[in-house]
Amino acid sequence: MADEEGAECDSLSRARSGDAAAFSALVRRHQRRVYSLALRMVWDRHAAEDLAQEVFMQLHRRLSRVQSDAHLVFWLRQVTLRLAIDRLRREATHRVVPLEEGLDVAAEPSESDPLLQRRLRTLVAQLPAAARAVVVLRYQEDLDPLDIAATLDMPINTVKSHLKRSLEELRAQLAAHAHDG
Amino acid sequence: MPMTDDDLEARLRGALRPTEPEVGFAARLAARMARERAPRPWAALRFLWVPAALAATVVVAMMVAHQRELRVEREGLAARHQLIEALRVTSAKLDLAYRGVNEAAQRPATRDSGA
After folding, report:
1. Do A52 and B25 touch (CB under 8 A)?
2. Which end of chain A, N or C, is more open, meaning fewer C-beta atoms within 10 Å of its C-beta?
3. Which ranges in chain B belong to alpha helices (H)?
4. How far is Cα A28 from Cα A122, in angstroms, rounded to an integer?
5. pLDDT tens, B22-74?
C-alpha cells in the first residue's frame, strides 16, 4: 500500500516535470474512476470517454497546481462532475434519457440481480444532474456527505437533502415498477 | 416486502460499481493530445483576418471618398453650367432692354428731323 502511494507520488512529480510515461501511468491509475463518474453522469459510453479525455487533458495543462495524490483524486472528481454537469445543462433542451437507453451500459458480470441493478442505474440517470452527482459520489465513490459537499462546492444540507430525496424517489420508482411488473 | 434503506444503499453500491473504459483509453487520449498539440497550418492564419479587415476597410473608405469627390465635382460642373446659362439669359435680356432703350431714345429725334 505504501509502495503504491510512493509510486503515485513519484508518477505525479515526474509527470509534473514533463515525463509523458509518468503522465500515462497517472491516466491508467485513475481512468476507471474518471470514466465511471463520467459514464454515470452522461449515460453514454462515447460521451463518457470524450469527457474523461477532456478531464485528463485539463489535468495535463494544470498538473503544476496539483499538490498531492489526495488533491489529485479530489481534483479529478470535481472537474469530471463539473464538466459533466455543464454538458448535461447544455444538452438539457435536446436530450431526454429514455428508460431503454440504460441497456447500452453493460452489466457487470458479477451482479447479483442484473435486472434490478440495470433498473437502478437507469433510475439514477433520470435524477436531476446535481442530485445524480451526489448519488454517484455517495455510492460509487463512497464519499461521506461532507466530502461530497466539498467536491461539489455545495452546502452540506443541500447534499443531505439531495440524498434523502433521491433515495425516496428511487425507492418509489422501484416499488412502482415492481407493482407494474 | 419493502426494501430497507440499507438494502437499497447496498444495491446502489452494486449498481454503481466503477467500470473500466474500453481497452486502449490511455493510447487514444495520448493520440488526441498529440493531435491537439500538433501545429495546425490554419491556426497561423487565424489572426490574418485583422489586417485583411483593416485593408478592406481602407479600400472601401478610399472608394467612398473618391465617389464623394466625383459627386461634388459633378454637382460643381452642373452648378457652373447653370450659372453660365443664367448669365447668358441675363445678358440676352439686358441686350434686349438696352436695344429697346436705345430705340426709344432715337425715336423722337427721327420724328423731329422728319418735321
Report:
1. yes
2. N
3. 5-15, 25-37, 41-44, 49-114
4. 27
5. 999 999 999 999 888 776 666 667 778 888 899 999 999 999 999 999 999 99
- Report, at the CATH architecture level, how domain A2-180 is classified: Orthogonal Bundle (1.10)
- CB contacts of A42 in chain B (<8 Å) are none
Nearest alpha carbon to residue A26 among A49, A57, A48, A65: A57
Question: How far, in Å, CA of B35 to CA of B4, rounded?
Answer: 51
Task: Decide if pLDDT at A94 tops 70.
Answer: no
> Which three cell numbers, joined as nine digits, stand for A45?
459510453
Distance from CA of B40 to the nearest CA of A (A): 18
CB contacts of A167 in chain B (<8 Å) are: 5, 8-9
Measured between alpha carbons, how far is A70 from A59 in angstroms, rounded to an integer?
A: 14
Which residue bears the cell 490554419?
B42
ipTM of the complex: 0.78
Confirm or reject contact between B31 and chain A (CB < 8 A).
Answer: no
Interface of chain A toward chain B, CB-CB under 8 angstroms: 20, 24, 27-28, 31-33, 35-36, 39-40, 45, 48-49, 52-53, 56-57, 60, 105-106, 108, 111-113, 116-118, 120-121, 124, 135-136, 139-140, 142, 167, 170-171, 174-175
**Minimal C-alpha gap between B6 and chain A (Å):** 11
